[in-house]
Amino acid sequence: MSIDLSAMSRHCSREVRDAVRALPNGGDWRLLKTKDHYFLYDGPTRVACIDNNGSKPSEFIAKKIVRTVQKYVTAHYA
């Protein structure tokens, strides 16, 4: 199952986009857009807030998001 990343804002970092593209096929992955944030869900579980409509996130925040997604995938799909 692939996630459509075209709906995300242009501010999303490349590292976060690559982490979302690399998600395993076994999950029920989806992106949910609220007023100004984009959340990654696996079924009913919110995994991470991966983007917002504000300015581009710093490198630290992007790495933190990638770590959170990878930690979830390792815990539930490894």
Could you describe the 3D structure shown?
The radius of gyration is 12 Å and the shape is globular. By secondary structure, it is α+β, with helices and mostly antiparallel strands. Strands 1-2-3 form a 3-stranded antiparallel sheet, covered by helices on one side. The protein is built from 2 helices and 3 strands, in the order H-E-E-E-H. The chain is 35% helix and 24% strand. Helix 1 packs parallel to helix 2 (59-77). The chain starts with 13 loop residues before the first helix and ends with a helix. The model has no long low-confidence stretch (mean pLDDT 89).
Write the layout of secondary structure elements.
Layout: H1 14-21, E1 29-33, E2 37-42, E3 45-52, H2 59-77
Question: Which features would summarize this protein structure in a list?
Answer:
2 helices; 78 residues; 3 strands; alpha+beta; three-stranded antiparallel beta sheet
Order of helices and strands: HEEEH
Low-confidence stretches: none
The shape is globular
Distance from N terminus to C terminus (CA atoms, Å) equals 17 Å
Count of strand segments: 3
What is the average per-residue confidence, as pLDDT, rounded to a whole number?
89
Kindly state the percentage of residues in helix.
25-40%
**Main sheet: strands, sense, barrel:** 3 strands, antiparallel
Q: What count of helical segments does DSSP give? A: 2
User: Whole-number radius of gyration?
Assistant: 12 Å
Strand order of the largest sheet: 1-2-3
Secondary structure class reads alpha+beta
Provide the β-strand percentage band: 15-25%
